[in-house]
Amino acid sequence: NVSLAFCNGHAISEGPIRPNVPGIIEIGGIQIKSKPDPLPEDINEFLDKGKHGAILFSLGSNLKGEHIQPHVVETIFKALSSVKQQVIWKWDDTKNTPGQSANILYKKWLPQDDILAHPKIKLFINHAGKGGVAEAQYHGVPMLALPVFADQPGNADKLAESGYGLQLPLATLDVDEFKAAIKEVIGNPKYAEKLKAFSQLYRDRPQTAQESVVYWTEYVIRHHGAAHMQSPLVHMNFIASNNLDIYIITALILYILFLINKIVWKFVWRKFCGKSNKASQKKKVKKQ
């Protein structure tokens, strides 16, 4: 009974390139606004102070600060408090922060997409969640990934391989290594250039993701379920959908051909080799 499936991806830019049925609609980056909302006053003022730009640091909403080992939090604070950029750090308990530094602003909740759209943002340190990665790619912000679980390691591998940033293991994070990675991603223009090219591909669509959702939802309603868009596979049984009938018929044909081939060779062997054996036996009898 499924008429339509929305897929959180954009194969043309992200890959992998693969065939799709009409009932699968790609809406990657649907959470991204075409025009960002104005930032809260305190965040906007903090970013404007950044003469050397700013860094956004967020490990998502599922991973709380209390779930991270204290020595890892200390490592992160030491590294971020030493950089010359302004740092916005998503931290749940703003009354108990990792430490105080003039260049760090702690916030329990962040308008992440709107912040990434700000021209002062030079780096996004994240956990490589799909949503955050898509937002950074859309806005052309280089990344430093600290993946933890689920799809995050795979997303981090992909963004590093694509040249959109670097990744480091969160559990064994080292201060010097962390600082060096931050310096590399911000200081080397190749990451921003790669993302600028990707962003152009990611944005270039006939409709925005939001417009696609509205159009195709209304399309299904207009056409009473749009059964004509369904793949025939939906209505096939297990045998037909997995081509088992084809495989069985093919196997039978091959087996029959094997038997015919075997019978023919037996006939040829008896016809020609059998005669030569009889002739040699007659010669032996005559000699005796």
TrEMBL record:
GO terms for molecular function: UDP-glycosyltransferase activity. The keyword ATP-binding does not apply. Gene3D superfamilies: Glycogen Phosphorylase B. InterPro entries: UDP-glycosyltransferase, UDP_glucos_trans. The chain crosses the membrane at residues 246-265. Keywords: Glycosyltransferase, Membrane, Transferase, Transmembrane, Transmembrane helix. The keyword Transmembrane applies. Pfam families: UDPGT (PF00201). Belongs to the UDP-glycosyltransferase family. This is UDP-glucuronosyltransferase 2B15-like. It comes from Drosophila rhopaloa (Fruit fly).
